[in-house]
Amino acid sequence: MIKQKSFNPGTKVTIFFMFFSILFFFLGLWQIERGQNKQEVIDLFDSSIKAKPSALNEESHKWQRVYVNGSFDESQQILIDNVIYRGRVGFKVFTPLSIQNEARLLLVDRGWIAKGSLREDIPDISIGNSFNELSGLLVQPELGFVLSDDLISKLWPKISQTQSLDYLAKAYKVELYPFILVAEPTYKDSLTYMEVIPTNMLPVKHYGYALQWFTMFLVLCGMYIYFGLKNKTYEK
């Protein structure tokens, strides 16, 4: 009399296995793809910041170093609220720059400044000279996570809960450039410079998540085989 095992996991277990194994496998592939995309962003960013600045023009693109000449309007500045720098809460200061023979305004990120002791205190964000020559990096901040639709205050200088140009543009009567220029720390009226970070998650983090999904996929495969062999025995 010989006992033989037959692979018979059952219909319900098979459906469960097929659904979750495909899900885990494709989630792993998705994380790898995201990691590759992040690496491309980092490579583009690294090459851009090493290049010499060129004049701002219609062909200028995200992460490009450019230089501009223009006049600041310190009466229409925007303070980006709740920006943390070295453990302290403060503002990023965005100042509109009017470029000669150009109808659009360019928002310039002049850097970070600490908040006062009271929330209603506005720090000194005045500019020494309205006409300026400066260089910097072009960025396109995303909306990010917000809890309210009321993102920008009414009075100047306005306080904003987002850096997204889609919302900041609503504060001005003229069109804005589709980028924000992060002024380099060598600019004489710059505030505390905050290093530009091209992505909030490094590729290795995505690859780590991919490994977790593939590990779950392999564990599920092992459990499926185990229960399939254990489920039924018969005698011969």
Task: Provide a descriptive summary of the structure in words.
The strands form two sheets. Strands 3-5-6-9-7 form a five-stranded mixed β-barrel. A two-stranded antiparallel sheet has the order 1-10. Helix 1 packs antiparallel against helix 3. The chain has 236 residues and is of the alpha/beta class. The protein folds into two domains: 3-40 and 202-235; 64-183, no CATH class. The mean pLDDT is 86. The chain is 31% helix and 28% strand.
Q: Helix share of residues?
A: 25-40%
Radius of gyration, taken over Cα atoms and rounded to an integer in Å? 27 Å
Which class best fits the helix and strand makeup?
Answer: alpha/beta
Q: Total domains, how many?
A: 2
H/E series, N to C?
A: EHEEEEEEEHEHE
Number of DSSP helices? 3
In short:
This protein has 236 residues and is α/β, with parallel strands linked by helices. The protein has helices spanning 11-50, 165-168, 203-230; strands at residues 3-5, 54-55, 65-72, 78-85, 88-99, 105-114, 131-139, 158-160, 176-183, 233-235. It has 2 domains: 3-40 and 202-235; 64-183, no CATH class.
